[in-house]
Amino acid sequence: MPSTHFRAGVVTVVTNSHGHLLAFERSDVPGAWQLPQGGIDVGESPLEAAWRELGEETGLGADDVLLVGEHPEWVAYEFPPDVRGEGRRLGQIQRWYTFRVRGDGIEPTPDGVEFVAWKWVEPTWLIDQVVAFRRDAYRRVLGG
Length: 144
Known about the structure:
alpha+beta, 34% strand, globular
């Protein structure tokens, strides 16, 4: 797979003390839930992108969460043909970072552009709710 055909990005997994994940409902696909994610900007490290995306999409930052882990491999997935479109990338390749909330009272603020709602969920529930073409990537990192 030539890397020029896959967008490099990050995914942020926010957990709480009960082992739940912070899931967000997409604004463009009601009923589809996922983790915050986004592309890596030029000159930005994957970790810098993870912090930026987390802040932009959820309003959470270093005062709210603590970085606790990084998946050891890049995780790739392909877009289905109807999502790919002509001349667009074939998919994404992402680094996954895990954060833990510093207190159970932390509440994110969805950006209102990409996400409209949030809730704490079990990993298996989220795997079942994410759009189908991302499901294998979520299963690979989150288990289930």
